[in-house]
Every structure is written in structure tokens, then in C-alpha cells.
Design brief:
322 residues; Rossmann fold; globular; alpha/beta; Glutathione S-transferase Yfyf (Class Pi), Chain A, domain 2; four-stranded parallel beta sheet; 2 domains
């Protein structure tokens, strides 16, 4: 099975363990991920509210590049924000012909064009669950995650109902739950599984952001989770990197590791923790993963980041800058 692969900016830097584990797991299941040549940032979550025309052209460029790459039909994004942006632009260009026309006028300046509907935009979680299947995943498990209590955290971007059209419950999805169960983990009932982590709110209103993160951590702790498992690099960053700030802000004592679902699959398939980028999380997963006999390396021994090519798009500049 062959797919176009859009890693997005996070997976080349702060979420490098997600990229490492995504590629390793995909390879184990015979999924060929062909990275989109010369891809650019998707604009994250704010840009589309600042300049809609530029934002659609930014995302449309990725769609055009992917569609022109050896007749690609499926484009996979592990990042939930990237997935939503790619799917939203494709969907809206299909629904609004004038929007598609304006977007393609902008793309034409770079010699590109995108016919909406040419690609099927997929999240990597959906590809594993729907194309590989939990039964096939379970058949490859060599180190079951027995005794590990996990909280499946989907976040708010992955399951938005307007664009999904996959029949899953947007308020209480269970496809990651079922996948983790197939790995042998004990999946807790996590009622806040689709609640927002705050996104970039940490840069706008720390008090608001910390409260959103606190609620998620407290719910996982109340249900005695050993680890929170997510499919979104922004969710992972907020719950992991800001956990100490939340503890200081609320005088709490959370120590919950936050890992990617691909890392959990890799562990269950017998892959080494270092090859999955484990050890690079801020809140150490060592104690939790010791329950399944997995020795997490020290941070400096963890797998290195994947480097992007030195050449690429120029960085934007403000007016008046050199």
C-alpha cells in the first residue's frame, strides 16, 4: 500500500519521535510513505483567520505537489492540525468553485494547479485502523502492553464531524481505544478524550491554557492512567512540555508521560524504545513502560532528529525588513 506523506513542520522538530515511530510502524505493515517533495508549512491553526486567500494558497500548494507526485491518490498526515487544514482546503475548494478558482490563480504563479477532490486526505491513525486493521495489527504483536493503563486522547481537531464523513462518533470516538486494546493495553474510560488541549493558547493566555491542560491531566490521573496516548503533536507538546508549569500554577503533582500511538504500536511489535524516539519526552515514560519490560533510554541516547534538506522555501519577512 502506497501513500503520499505530509509530515508537517512539527514532525521535523519537536515531534520528531512521532515521525520516527510513524515511519517505523508503517514499514512494519508494508505501508510505503512517499514524502511530498518540497512541502511547506500548512499554516497551523491561526493563519486561515488572518489571510484566507494566502492560507488556502499555502495549503493548496501542498495538495498540488502531492497530486502531481506519480499519480498519488491518498495523502497521509500524522499531525491532526495538518490533516484538518489539508482536508478543509480540499473540501472547501470542492464546495465553493470561486474559492477554488482564486486559490488556483495564486498557485499558477508557481506553476501549480490543484483539482479539488483529486486526493483523499487521511490521518495516519485512520490508515492503520482502516487499511491495516486491528486484527492484522494484533497478529504482529510480540510484546503485548499488558498491565499498562492508557488514556486515549484524540484532541479536538482529529474528530471534527463537518469534514470527517467516516461515521465515527465525534464526541466519543473509540477507534484509537480499539487499536490500543489490540496491542494488549488496558484502555481506561477517558471522558475528556476529545476536549481541547488549548492549542497555542499558552502563548496568549497562560491561565486559560493551564486550566485546559490541568483538566485533561486530572481526568487521566483520576482514572489511574499510566500514560496518555495521542495522535497530535500539539496535544503531546501541551500536555508534556507544560505539565511542570501546570503543577507550579495549581500546586499539583502530575507526572503523566504523553506518548504517540505509533510509539505504542512499535513497542508492542518489539521495536526498541530508542528507535521510536522514546526518551525524548519531557515527562519520562521510564517508570510506566517498565511495566511492560521496556527500558527507555536516557534523553541523550534517544534516536536523533530527522533532518530536512537544507534548501527550501524562503522564510516570510515583515514589510520593511531586508
Amino acid at each position: 500500500m502506497r501513500y503520499g506523506y505530509y509530515p508537517g513542520c512539527s514532525l521535523t522538530h519537536s515531534a520528531a519521535p512521532y515521525d520516527l515511530s510513524a515511519r517505523a510502524v508503517s514499514n512494519a505493515f508494508g505501508l510505503q510513505l512517499d514524502e511530498v517533495n518540497d512541502w511547506n508549512c500548512c499554516g497551523a491553526t491561526e493563519y486561515i483567520t488572518i489571510n484566507k486567500a494566502a492560507a488556502y494558497a499555502l495549503v493548496g500548494r501542498n495538495l498540488a505537489l502531492a497530486a502531481s507526485q506519480d499519480g498519488q491518490t491518498d495523502l497521509v498526515a500524522p499531525c491532526s492540525a495538518c490533516y484538518l487544514n489539508l482536508r478543509k482546503v480540499d473540501h472547501n475548494m470542492t464546495a465553493y468553485p470561486k474559492l477554488a478558482e482564486r486559490t488556483n490563480e495564486a498557485l499558477a504563479a508557481g506553476g501549480l494547479h490543484y483539482d479539488p477532490g483529486s486526493l483523499r486526505i487521511r490521518h495516519l491513525l485512520d490508515v492503520i485502523v482502516d487499511d491495516v486493521g486491528n486484527q492484522a495489527v494484533a497478529a504482529k504483536v510480540t510484546r503485548p502492553l499488558r498491565g499498562l493503563r492508557v488514556a486515549p486522547y484524540y484532541g479536538c481537531l482529529l474528530v471534527r464531524p463537518q469534514l470527517n464523513g467516516d461515521g465515527r462518533n465525534p464526541e466519543y470516538p473509540t477507534h484509537m481505544d480499539d487499536l490500543l486494546s489490540a496491542l494488549g493495553a488496558e484502555v481506561i474510560d477517558y471522558p475528556l478524550k476529545t476536549h481541547c488541549c488549548g492549542g497555542h493558547m499558552t502563548q496568549i493566555s497562560a491561565d486559560t491554557a493551564y486550566e485546559l491542560i490541568r483538566r485533561l491531566l486530572k481526568s487521566a490521573q483520576d482514572y489511574e492512567a499510566d500514560v496518555i496516548v495521542t495522535a497530535c503533536p500539539m496535544c503531546q507538546l501541551n500536555l508534556d512540555a507544560y505539565q511542570s508549569q501546570v503543577n507550579r500554577h495549581f500546586s499539583t503533582d502530575f507526572h503523566l508521560p504523553v506518548l504517540y500511538f505509533t510509539q505504542m504500536i512499535g513497542l508492542a511489535l518489539g521495536m526498541t524504545p530508542a528507535s521510536l524516539g522514546l526518551g525524548r519526552e519531557i515527562v519520562s515514560a521510564a517508570a510506566a513502560l517498565a511495566k511492560i519490560g521496556a527500558a527507555v533510554p536516557e534523553p541523550e541516547a534517544a534516536a536523533p532528529r530527522r533532518k530536512r534538506a537544507e534548501t527550501g522555501l524562503p522564510m516570510p519577512r515583515r514589510r520593511g525588513e531586508g
